Amino acid sequence: MRLKLEYLLCLSIMVVFIKKCVCVVTPNLTTQTNITSTTPQTEDDEDFVPYHGERFTVFDWTLFRNLAKTNAGNVLLSPISIKLALVLLYEGAQDQTARELAEVMQLPLNVLATREKFNNILKSLQVPSSTYALNIGSRIYIDNNVLTRQRYAATVKTFYNTDVINANLSDTHAIATKVNSWVNNITNGHIEKMIDDEKGLENSVMLIVNGLFFKGAWRRKYFAPENTRVSKFHINSNESVNVPYMHTISRFYYAESSRLDAKILRIPYDGSKFAMYIVLPHTLTGVNHIVNQINPFTLASDMWNMQEMPLDVWIPKFKFEFTSHLEHTLRELGIRDIFDDTAQLTGIAKTKRASRHLQVSDVMHKTGIEVNENGTIAYAATEIQIGNKIEEGTFHANHPFVFYIEDETTATILYIGIVQNPLNASGTTGKIEQEFPSRLSPDTATVTPNPVATSTEDRYAFFNIDLLQRLNEDIEGNLILSPSSAKIALTSLVEGTGGRTRQELLAALRLPPDEYTIRRIAKRTLMPLKSHQNGTEIDVATRLWINPVLTTSPNYMNALHNYYGTDIQQLNFGNANVAANMINAWVREHTRNNIKSIIQPGTLAADTQILLTSALYFKGRWLKSFDKHATRARCFRVPQRGCQDVPMMENTSRYRYAYIASLDADVVEIPYSNGRTSMLIFLPSHEDSDPYLQILSKDLSYVPMRTLLTSLNETELVLSIPRFSIESKLDLRSSLMRMGVLDIFGMAANFTGIIYNDYLRIGNIIQNAKIEVDEEGTIAAAVTELMVVPLMANMAPAFIANRPFIFAIVDLVTSETLFAGRVMDPSMSNFESI
């Protein structure tokens, strides 16, 4: 026999009925193979690499959190089963109904991307395998009195492999028999009756039924039946029950999560595709903390910290069923319209008799699971690897825990659950009979979180928006800065710091601690910043100015030259005027004379020891130029000053554009001629609620640039933006200190990687930046200066940017932000903040 874990079905059923007259449709997801592994696995080692892409599981964990809070006992749900049922409704929904489903489920920003997402998931789940069994299917039963829209039926069949079946739904006994038979078949007989109450089908015109069955064998046959022992399971600090525990000592991937205050154990199944994760709190009552804190981003981080190690593992055998009626939970999450008479499901069907609305009457979810050690000990014994047993190497799941089963190739969660008591065999949320607030109720607004899982490069890019946000808090009026220029300077500084100074810089820059990764990321960032192609020119230059009397570290000098393209120039700062003239001449040269100076007369201290300057120049020609003759004075609404006439450029063409719900803003991409650089403009939808763009700049922190770019779709657009010119002189010290970079400015600064025998600190960090945007394109330049001194002192749709907006110049390949800024009043050209 094999050692197996059986996941006995997850199934969702929706009953859609009309109170007066009706509309209907039906889909079906195909059944897959149910074959159990019969061939022994021989591999001894497993190279586990967590899923690296963006996870489509925010809704999964939000739904789980809400269900867990309202159910004290065991909980089980299948997020993918529920999402597959709901997305079939989304395909036929319109207006507010569609928006609610899309926002709460965190669907991609257009319907084509949504179809591709689910189609890829289904293809992955339907790959035949001899090592596990997985059946998945959906059907839509629709009443004969309803005419299905052919487009809807074709869409659900093509992208979701779902059949629409016409039937006489008024014959409740016959339809219940058909549905129960189909469910019984897809779940291999584990759910015999999905519909117990045939009367509940009265007045229904449409049923959406989705089923999922999974049966997998443990990959290494860990648990021998003779090792099972009965021991106490602590339900809480005062109550315990005796349950059978499966036991093994073997190698597992394992992590400690400080955020969840829990241990995380991964148990893979045969086939190297699925795994169960058990999240065990450190304390008896810690499962509620896990439920409140768990999310895909925390888990993704914890997965990357997993290490394979020998563990003494005790897991209770458990088997239970769970039935939930999800209307109450979905309403709390913000999906309300489908349950009200305001529901817009007009894309699904039309009726033969006069009718107004389809609406959902119930969303029922029935699940079951059994975890045991069924199988033989022969093969498992050869896999046992015993290490030195230590207390930290024990995983004893003897109190409530969270578990989930994931398709690791797509990061699709099949099942999530809580075990509060392994002896409890069933649970239900019940059909909650109460009046629910409609979507129009003002005090029921739901905000769904939208953080994003990210790569190391994406996290490095967070600094760009973080810096913009901090400056935006302090500065009124127009603003232009170059995050790339500041970031290059700070990253090269990391090489020469140590201790807490280094840790603060790494934290602010979102960089890992190892030098190899830092240098690789820096090189990838710098590569696109030197190019001249098709009329668009980008150039970056960095120079370290150093007092000849300093004894500097050759390793630091070599690192600057080799990994950051920094040249080194000795300079006697004692003659402040001569030194300032030399530095300003370098600035003019590398910004093509757009920035005249960065050192103002009398500001260069004679005791300066090191000065780091980073210059970035950008000159981009629009891929689609604006006609100068179309430019005319138009109203631009300036906060507190009202309408101001400014020159507005206009062009009608195809641009990549989208409304980004998580930002509540319209975003348009205006490409430059080199094909890899674009300007993005972020225009808030409700100017009155965010006149100074404070909310928008904060929200940008939660959406990686890479994600934004993939969300845009080519659209015929009337594009109107102001011609503008901005120059800013910014002292970044205050903003960086609020970002946690403190030590470099104070007496605790640690620059031991730069010099051997002196103590240094950063006096200030100055950036001059300038941008000009006109009908032909953009010219932008920026210089960042870090001064180090001795440690002694202190129709077509229209996109009309006629109100304050945020802009960014972005490298589309690396998603790096070269320049970012804010336009509050295009008629104002200069701004200084020192």
UniProtKB/TrEMBL annotation:
Per the record's keyword annotation, is Ion transport included, yes or no?
A: no
Q: Which residues form the Serpin domain?
A: 61-422, 465-826
Q: InterPro entries, per this entry?
A: Serpin_CS, Serpin_dom, Serpin_fam, Serpin_sf, Serpin_sf_1, Serpin_sf_2
This protein's UniProt keywords: Glycoprotein, Protease inhibitor, Secreted, Serine protease inhibitor, Signal
Q: Name one GO cellular component term.
A: extracellular space
The yes or no answer to whether the keyword Glycoprotein is present is yes
SMART domains reported for this sequence = SERPIN (SM00093)
Its Gene Ontology molecular function terms? Answer: serine-type endopeptidase inhibitor activity
Entry's Pfam families? Serpin (PF00079)
Q: What is its main location?
A: secreted
Q: Where in the cell is it found?
A: Secreted
What residue range is the signal peptide? 1-23
* CDD domains tied to this protein: serpin11-like_insects, serpinK_insect_SRPN2-like
Task: Family membership, please give it.
Answer: Belongs to the serpin family.
- What is the name listed in the Swiss-Prot or TrEMBL entry for this protein? Serpin domain-containing protein
Record the organism. Lasius platythorax
Instruction: Give the classification, highest ranks.
Output: Eukaryota, Metazoa, Ecdysozoa, Arthropoda, Hexapoda
